[in-house]
């Protein structure tokens, strides 16, 4: 975890105090369930609830000797509780505590990620509606294609983040399971009703079949979902970066008073926030492969997954949480330049209407192949002419071609260059996205 790219609420979930607090609650709840079943004295459960506490430094001290974190934790708590602590952890194994705790942490992390995703969606929706009919050139392969609107660009990203929201909710449901089933998951030394009690109190579902651990396909699905969300952030951030290039400058990140873009060049206004987001997305996605590798554990369990999860659990969730809120802030404050969009739209002299002319020719009886050839001939002449090009460059070439004018009258040809046609179905798309 890099403090520079973290937010306090998410960091708190992964702090030792939080982890041990959840461990203590799991052990206490298990004792309460055992007491209700008559397995241990109720007084022992009451005493554990009343006196149970831990000291992180003391746990670390004990662990240096015993080389086992759960044993060190139980020993630390026992020093506060006294003799009744002998009833703690009855019939349980370390993974019952560790895995159930991890499920709680990941569920809580999911809740924060969902909030972040919703903030991105709110920002995208607001700006999409604001620029619903702001014309801009669409680009394929980085080259001018046909007009779209800036609002449609943002609506597409909104739809993606709506899917990401569904993914995060599904990932939360997938990961939120409890296992209190003993050494190899057979409940040999503990009643399954203890697991059911603990799960209900912690807001989890019981794991249908655990071994010594909760199956790691759940964790793999969780981190895969995070990776997809990170990819969505990078796609949006990359769009902003391209739009901010000097030659394009259709939108740019906000530039704060007093902000400096370069130690050498005072004029620079760099897309540093979105560049940073692309890097953070790579870090989040880097957790996906190790999580997949953790699925195939030996028999009922080995410990090869543990070191991985101690790293990727905090890192991936903390970085994605930070990235979501930074992405939202960028969109909320994004500076948009409609006048530059209009300038760029006119840059190629009407070439963006080439398809409309070709289709009009086919409607007039020209074969598609011949129509394509006729329009391309004039289009390439415009393409190869030096800038600046007149806004009417393509239509002027077409009007001078008798093979075109013999099929299309002036009114029909001019109608092909009415850009409003490109935006006739914007309302349809917006209704699909926003309802």
CATH superfamily of the largest domain: Fumarase/aspartase (Central domain)
- Give a short account of the largest sheet: 2 strands, antiparallel
Shape: elongated
**What portion of residues is helical?**
55-70%
User: What is the terminal separation in angstroms?
Assistant: 39 Å
Total helical elements: 19
> Which architecture name of the largest domain does CATH use?
Up-down Bundle
Count of the separate structural domains: 3
Average pLDDT taken over every residue: 97
- What would you report as the Rg, rounded to the nearest angstrom? 31 Å
Proportion of beta-strand residues: under 5%
CATH fold name of the largest domain: Fumarase C, Chain A, domain 2
Poorly predicted regions = none
CATH class of the largest domain: Mainly Alpha
Number of strands: 6
Which strands sit side by side, in order, in the main sheet?
A: 1-2
Structural summary, described in words:
With 435 residues, this protein is mainly alpha-helical. The protein folds into three domains: 1-90, Orthogonal Bundle (Fumarase C, Chain B, domain 1), CATH 1.10.275.10; 94-188 and 198-347, Fumarase/aspartase (Central domain) (Fumarase C, Chain A, domain 2, Up-down Bundle); 351-416, Ribonucleotide Reductase Protein R1, domain 1, CATH 1.10.40. Helices cover 63% and strands 5% of the residues. It contains 19 helices and six strands. Helix 8 (192-202) links the parallel strand 3 (177-178) and strand 4 (205-206). It is elongated, with a radius of gyration of 31 Å. The model has no long low-confidence stretch (mean pLDDT 97).
